[in-house]
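Comment thread on ticket #2218

A.B. wrote:
> Attaching the input chain for the structure job we discussed in standup.
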Amino acid sequence: MKNTTKNLLLILLLICSGLYAGGTNVAKPGMVQVHGGTLFWSVITFVLLLLVLKKVAWGPIISALESREAEINEALKNAEKARDNTEKASQEYNDLISKARSESQQVLSESKISAEKIRQDIKENAENEAKNILENAKNQINAEREKAIQEIKSVVVDFSLQAASKVIEKNLDSKDNLKIIDDAIEGIGKV
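C.D. wrote:
> Ran it. Output below, let me know if you need it in another format.
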């Protein structure tokens, strides 16, 4: 900025000095005439105005622009941090969702395996219990049959003894013997 101001001032001084040194020229109609004295004081006024503006306005304007630039840069940095944080949070969220899905799939498969095992255990227990009940029923039936056979044998033996004793007592003919045996057999069914 200082070099530009110095260069501008030098150019204006050279123009002023060239015009002042040129002397009086005859004015041509339609041309603008430049007077050295007026130009000199205009340049001096312009330079003084530039110096005053530099002291009074240029500093605050530039400092305001620099502070605004710093604020914008800070806002850009904050926006970049916020974007990075948002991307990081989004990635963490996606990771959590993926992990939750994976865990839910694992829990689901474990529950299916557990349910299948429980079903198999229940089936095996039911089959074993059915076998035990069937075996107990067979054993009970066999025991009851043996008991019934024993009772029948004892009843038959008792009837046979009674029939034999009656036959011996009466010593009857064969028709009487057949009748006694038929009566004994009928008596077995009633007992």
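A.B. wrote:
> Thanks. Noting for the ticket: The chain has a mean pLDDT of 80.
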